[in-house]
Amino acid sequence: MKLGAFQALALMTVAAIYVLIVLGGLVSSTGSGLACPDWPLCKGQMIPALTVSVLIEFTHRVWSILVTTLVVATMVFAWKAYRWSAKATKLSTLTFILLVDQVVLGMVTVRSGTMAIVVTAHLAVATLVFASALTTAVTSLQLNPKEVSVN
User: Fold this and answer.
1) pLDDT digits (tens, 9 = 90+) for 89-146
2) Where would I find the H helices in the chain?
3) Residue 151 belongs to some domain of the structure
4) Contact, 14 vs 132, CB < 8 A?
5) Whose CA is closest to 119, among 20, 33, 17?
6) Is residue 148 part of a domain?
7) What are the tens digits of pLDDT across the range 39-86?
């Protein structure tokens, strides 16, 4: 089966989200959640001095920028190629909305001092983002590949 650009992008997005969740688990399991005690900066800097803990937390943050870019690209591509005629457009839009919620929860996680209830909510929403992106990707495989010029 030949994948179209949208299908490949949707699958790449799912893989990147999975890696982000694993990185979040590493942040939590190593106690690195407060290595960057402020948000969106880390120790008041765009690029902080890197200790092991800061590197773990900062990698999670930088990877989240990649994920955000992929989620937005997937949603824009779906809108350009399929409009509302396909479930993939609705699902990719849902993924974006859930991701915005997730980013806000990430900020609250840091600002709350990693309160257990907030960290748990952060993981729960991460799971929803992953599920939505995965459903988008699976749904995209049922669509005819379309090449769309994203202007």
Assistant:
1) 999 999 999 999 999 999 999 999 989 999 999 999 999 999 999 999 999 988 776 6
2) 5-29, 52-82, 87-111, 116-140
3) no
4) no
5) 33
6) no
7) 889 999 999 999 999 999 999 999 999 999 999 999 999 998 887 667
Q: Is the dihedral of CA 77, 19, 113, 42 positive or negative?
A: negative
Looking at 30-51, list the stretches that DSSP marks H as alpha helix, in order from N- to C-terminal side: none
Residue bearing tokens 């690209």: 73
Cα separation, 18 vs 131, whole angstroms: 10
**What residues are labeled active site?**
57
**Model pTM?**
0.91
In a domain, 147, yes or no: no
Number of domains in the chain: 1
Two structure tokens written together for 117 = 């209830």
**In which domain, by residue range, is 43 found?**
5-140
In a domain, 84, yes or no: yes
